[in-house]
Amino acid sequence: MAKDGYRIPLQVYVLWCPKLNADGLDVAKGAAISTELYALLCRDIDEPLTRGIGIPTYFRSVPGPGLDMPLGIDFDGAESICVIALIDSEMVIDSKWSAYLTEIQRRIAASGGRHGFVPVALDASAIGYLPIKNLNSVRYDLQKENASAFLRISVTHELCRMLDANSEPGKPGSAIRIFISHAKKDGNEEAKLLKERIEETHADRFFDAVSIAPGYEFAKEIEDGIRGSTVIALVTDRYSSRPWCRKEILLAKAYRRPIVVVDALEKEELRSFPYLGNCRVLRWTEDAYSIVLAALSETLRFEYQLRRLGELTRIGRFPKNARQLLRAPELLDFKGLGSGNSKGAKKPVVYPDPPLGVEETDAIREFCPTAEFLTATAPWPEPKLEGKRVGISISDSPDLAARGLSPNHLTDATYEIARNLLAFGAKLGYGGDLRKAGFTERMVEFVYSFEGEVDPSSLTNYEAWPVHTFGNRQRLAEVTNLITVEMLPLPDDVQGSPATPLDPLKPEERYVLARCFTEMRQRMHREIHARVVLAGASTKYTGKMPGILEEILIAIEGGAPVYLMGGFGGCAGVVADGVRGRAPVELTMDYQLEHNPGYRAFVPFYESKGNAPIDYPAFTTRLQTAGPGGLNNGLSESENLRLMESSDLDEINHLILRGLSTRFPS
């Protein structure tokens, strides 16, 4: 629970026993499934511009820091927590996992129905496993086909039941009801097949051919059916020409119900029904499992966002008179919003992330000029960051798995932070090379996709000499049309040849690299207005100190705002410890000499050139002296401590935007 009183509505933890191959990669079936569940429940990093459900989803597989088992679960960290245990033979034969799961199940059983537990049998050995002996399991092992879809449908439905607003405290909610809206003239066969697929799951369905008993009023039964349902609109050639089909969609919009549109056109429709827009759309498929999953996923997204917006309203994150929407705004949502006696008064409208593009908000404002758009993440009033460039310091962290995170969590964080900064007018700065699948490459692709047009000023990439000399020159030529690339020259006080790559194990060549990286970081500091810092390595760097440490020290000395996120570990976590008054072992010369090949010869060579000593005790003291207030970022001490500890992206983005809004008032 956040210190401002915000209660996260739901968190999910996925557990599995890892199986590492010779290269240290986890090849357990649970590892692959956990990635699928993260994409389903939180966000799909392969589709960074699409909205996800947004449920914070964490992993428990490898031992935590200093432990022989994964970190425990903070059952006070959210209003409800669901633990999904992916059980295979490796987990069954490990007594430590048995004790771990037994304790988790004990805590959940004592929660009075507040938390949930979903055991998944990946193979037959899970049946009869002592920690779940009396619990019904999801039988993944029995699914010869569509096992992945079966598991995702089962998990999604269970989470929907946990969030069911109509359920009694301590009891699971009722089955999710799905209303099949279709044209009988040409959609009956598809609707019947869809009905059969729904009946294979735990969900309920409303199908007018069998759900309305004789003697009951058709119109009232239809309206009552829609009021509590998720609607699947099965759009065939005749669908939009049928009055009842159109009315069903309008009723679903009026009752703020989840809608999934299924494109089952065979030839054409002469006029599409305009109010089918602003909904999730997918193609008809004969197995129909993907359609059922889409309907349940949309239901879960609605239920989660309903609770999240309600909780944010309760703590005063935005005005109590704000109109709350559970999907992106559309013109239907603004009925009556422009009327009233408060002429010219702002009409706040809150909706789930991600933010709308400017072209959409401008179009809506033509009909409702006083509308003020707010996302659940942004502070209110919303920040105005035009003309500000924010530097992003982010790279891989070796601590992710031990903290219950994964590379997907880190990539997701990169995209979400960039998305929110760009949405409120900021430009981005980044220092990195263009290696394949690296962070620079991801940033380039994301910024270009987000902007939707070529605006090279949106992202400036700073490349130190000799990175741009030996990097991917072809890719460098391509991205110069999309972003601004600053290729820094060799500093005047050093000599180097672009003929051969520099060897960081040779002190004289590492010296050149160190000077080049320092020059790049100082240049970047002069051209940005704030810096966001996340993850990064504390060892195996090729400069004079860990890159993120150097960037933070430069920013603190220069008075630039620093937004420091330590929850993902890495060097940012080490620096966060220093800012909180601790003395991390990673910030000692002995540690750095032990963990960095070639560093022992480099340090005296570097200092012999007249440079200031590489003084780790002084670095630690500087961080301790600065403290949270020395980050100069517009946040209070308690807010900075939350930012340094959190791995929740909603909270992280809110605090960054809040600090920037305070630091750079419009």
Automatic annotation (TrEMBL):
Transmembrane segments: none annotated. Pfam families: LD_cluster2 (PF18163), TIR_2 (PF13676). SUPFAM superfamilies: Toll/Interleukin receptor TIR domain (SSF52200). GO terms for biological process: signal transduction. Residues 178-262 form the TIR domain. This is TIR domain-containing protein.
